[in-house]
Design goal:
The protein has 2 domains: 49 residues; 182 residues, Exo-inulinase, domain 1 (Jelly Rolls), CATH 2.60.120.560. It is 21% helix and 43% strand. It contains 2 helices and 13 strands, in the order αβββββββββββαββ. Strand 6 and strand 7 form a beta hairpin. The radius of gyration is 31 Å and the shape is globular.
């Protein structure tokens, strides 16, 4: 037998063993990679972001049995807004050109919701110096106790606590506002944030005394102290 053939015969078993070892490594790696890949897909893909549950809403541009009056108006929208009915607690609220507005000072109109922790959004128009308006939440329906995230003129965003005729300004942020904005007020337990056009402008933590004064109201809606302010696209979400 030639030296080359002898060498080949000696190495053949080792080569076969090496192939088996490599194959095992590949199988183990594939199994491990497969498991990692599956977990990674789950974490990368996840569930598609869900649309927040709408508690109630109204666009004010659709007709209702109450005509232009807000009080007693069933909510209307292109989306499903539930079967709730507006109540006015102060001021006279009505609809003009598809937008809600009020006459009177500290006028409020609200809808029932299911929780004090809530996010309310609306488009506001007619902002100008000296005009105050915004969104009310945690409203008890009677007694005039509620929170309001408001814009004061074109330079301030404020969080106010109303207790009947007593008004406490809990926090103020200075900013620059246009005559039309998208206002959002969110309460999560004791934390309240106010955003304008998607940017948080103010954050405040309610004190124990604030919470005692506020009570357990869960209604949310509109607030205005000027009859030139108008609202549309009102939405309340958890």
């Amino acid at each position: 037998m030639s030296p080359n053939l002898r060498t080949t015969s000696i190495l053949r078993p080792f080569a076969a063993a090496l192939v088996l070892v490599m194959a095992s490594v590949v199988v183990v790696h594939a199994v491990g990679l497969g498991g990692l890949h599956a977990r990674s897909l789950g974490s990368w893909q996840g569930a598609a972001p869900s649309t927040p549950t709408v508690l109630t809403c109204d666009r004010f541009n659709l007709s209702a049995p109450t005509g232009t009056a807000i009080n007693g108006r069933p909510v209307r929208s292109v989306a499903s807004c539930g079967t709730f009915t507006w109540s006015t607690h102060s001021g006279t609220w009505s609809i003009s050109s598809g937008r809600a507005g009020a006459s009177g000072t500290n006028a409020t109109a609200t809808l029932p919701t299911t929780s004090a922790s809530i996010t309310v959004d609306a488009e506001m128009t007619g902002l100008a110096s000296g005009r105050i308006g915004g969104l009310a939440l945690s409203h008890g329906g009677t007694g005039g106790r509620y929170l309001a995230g408001v814009v004061n003129g074109l330079t301030q965003v404020q969080l106010r606590l109303y207790n009947g005729s007593a008004i406490s300004t809990l926090a103020t942020a200075t900013t620059t506002l246009a005559s039309t904005i998208q206002l959002r007020v969110r309460r999560s337990a004791s934390t309240v944030t106010i955003s304008v056009n998607g940017t948080v402008r103010l954050t405040y933590t309610l004190t124990a005394a604030n919470l005692t004064t506020l009570g357990s109201g869960t209604r949310a809606g509109l607030y205005a102290s000027n009859n030139s302010l108008r609202f549309t696209d009102f939405v309340a979400t958890p």
